[in-house]
Amino acid sequence: FNGFQRTRSILVELISTMKPDPDPSLYQRQSSLYLLMISHLLEASHSKDVAKANEVSKLLEYERETLLMLMKKKAI
Fold first, then answer.
1. Which tens digit of pLDDT belongs to each residue from 14-49?
2. If you compute the radius of gyration of the chain from its CA atoms, what whole number of angstroms results?
3. This prediction's pTM
4. What is the DSSP string of 16-65?
5. Rounded distance, CA 7 to CA 16, Å?
6. Residue 14 DSSP symbol
7. In angstroms, rounded to a whole number, what is the distance separating the alpha carbons of residues 30 and 37?
8. Which among 2, 12, 14, 56 is least surrounded, fewest beta carbons within 10 Å?
């Protein structure tokens, strides 16, 4: 339960710090993805649905890999 709650808190913080500038379309897609993850975490927590929790975990892993690639690209 604590892991779900902490992850939701992190996702809410990410959404609240995002800005639609310079790409409103990217902002909309990213915030929608984070909201989907929050929704799945709530469902997984209430119904003990491991599949939903695993789906969020995979999405977060993909998000992490994407951010790492972006940081490496910007460092060059």
1. 999 999 988 999 999 999 999 999 999 999 999 988
2. 14
3. 0.84
4. HH----S-HHHHHHHHHHHHHHHHHHHHHHHHT-HHHHHHHHHHHHHHHH
5. 14
6. H
7. 11
8. 2
